[in-house]
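for the recovery benchmark. tokens below, seq after
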């Protein structure tokens, strides 16, 4: 196995790890959405209780009647703390993704260090054009052709790494914008859309990831 093949396998190991991280981030965002809705319900019940107290005893001190409803305030504070925790974990997640992307950058740069920047740019442009219009059916056909043709070229390995990195980088930027936009005033429909977009990963072509993973499988089989 050559150096480029070893670099590609290592690169894809990190891609698989990032996929697992993505699922963790998605879970945390869903938790945030759940806690935000619960927080809003608690605050609404708290406001309704105060309104009823004021309406039923306008001539007395409000503090005389708020004691029995103190659990409502405690509930809202509990969910507020859970929201803070989820937000902190989302930022930790983003930092981990950023570190992984740095690793991918290092691996891909080492893999193409013998090539000039112009050569790499030309290779990437050619590869991008060849896969730009692929859908899942065409990608499956390409995987079959890859398997039948045998050895993958240096330019295909390096270009695939560049394409995957660009997709994952765009996905990271999208996730970061979502986390930056989160707040107690985030509308429920917007938060639902955030969760949906996060799960769908519109920037990532999963069939291209699958094609790259099939190259790794072929490499593993060639070693046996």
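predicted aa per position
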């Amino acid at each position: 196995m050559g150096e480029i093949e070893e670099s590609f396998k290592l690169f894809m190991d990190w891609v698989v790890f990032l996929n697992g991280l993505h699922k963790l981030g998605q879970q945390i965002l869903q938790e945030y959405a759940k806690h935000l809705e619960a927080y809003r319900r608690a605050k609404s019940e708290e406001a309704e209780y105060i309104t009823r107290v004021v309406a039923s005893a306008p001539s007395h001190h409000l503090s005389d009647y708020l004691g029995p409803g103190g659990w409502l305030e405690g509930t809202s504070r509990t969910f507020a703390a859970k929201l803070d925790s989820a937000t902190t974990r989302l930022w930790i997640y983003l930092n981990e993704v950023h570190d992984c992307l740095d690793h991918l950058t290092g691996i891909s740069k080492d893999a193409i260090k013998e090539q000039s920047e112009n050569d790499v740019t030309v290779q990437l442009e050619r590869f991008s054009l060849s896969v730009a219009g692929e859908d899942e059916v065409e990608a499956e056909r390409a995987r079959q052709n890859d398997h039948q043709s045998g050895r993958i070229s240096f330019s295909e390995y390096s270009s695939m790494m560049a394409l995957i990195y660009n997709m994952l980088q765009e996905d990271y930027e999208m996730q970061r914008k979502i986390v930056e936009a989160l707040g107690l005033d985030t509308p429920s429909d917007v938060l639902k859309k955030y969760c949906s977009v996060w799960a769908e990963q519109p920037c990532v072509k999963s069939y291209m990831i699958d094609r790259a993973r099939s190259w790794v499988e072929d490499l593993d089989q060639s070693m046996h």
